[in-house]
Amino acid sequence: IGPLGAKLLLVLGHTKCGAMAGATQVMLNAKKAAASGTPAKQTTLEKLLAGLAPVAAQAQQELPSGASEAEIAAKAIEVNVFAGMARLLIYSEPVREKVKSGDVQLHGAVYDIVTGEVKFLGQHPKEKVILAMGAGSTDHALGA
């Protein structure tokens, strides 16, 4: 893509992501507040992190019931990588067209900040569906 002629685009998340941990906490607190009928008071930071809460909620749905907050936050990192990949395919015409033609591959990965290892997640599991939907499709396609 572009002057460098890149053939591979990599959306890279990282372990122990503070934003995903915060978003997970915000999502869980919102669920507790909804269950108790008392609205949760949010700080400005929590209001910003609420934008990532749907990623944390999807991560929680993909895990077995009773998953810990730390497990949900860790899964949310992968879910967020796939959401980022979907956004690139939906909203970036150059990326979408190059991936569609096979000139470029789009992959996801998670960098482990402790070990330095990279876990490659591969292509988006719904890449063909997203490409078939075309530009500006709704965000329901953003999940993994």
Characterise the protein shown here.
The protein is of the alpha+beta class. 51% of the residues lie in helices and 13% in strands. The chain has 6 helices and 3 strands; from the N terminus they run βαααααββα. It has helices at 18-36, 44-49, 53-62, 69-91, 93-101, 127-133, and strands at 8-14, 105-111, 118-122. The chain has a 3-stranded mixed beta sheet. Helix 1 (18-36) packs across helix 3 (53-62), helix 1 packs across helix 4 and helix 3 crosses helix 4 (69-91). The radius of gyration is 17 Å and the shape is elongated. The two termini are 24 Å apart.
Give a count of the beta strands, DSSP E runs of length 2 or more.
Answer: 3
The end-to-end distance, rounded to whole angstroms, is 24 Å
Strand arrangement, major sheet = 1-2-3
The pLDDT mean sits at 90
Give the fraction of residues assigned to helices.
40-55%
> Helical region count?
6
Tell the overall outline: elongated
Largest β-sheet summary: 3 strands, mixed
> For the CA atoms, what is the radius of gyration?
17 Å
Estimated structural class:
alpha+beta
Q: pLDDT under 50 segments (min length 5)?
A: none
- Give the amount of beta strand, in percent: 5-15%
What is the element string, with H for helices and E for strands? Answer: EHHHHHEEH
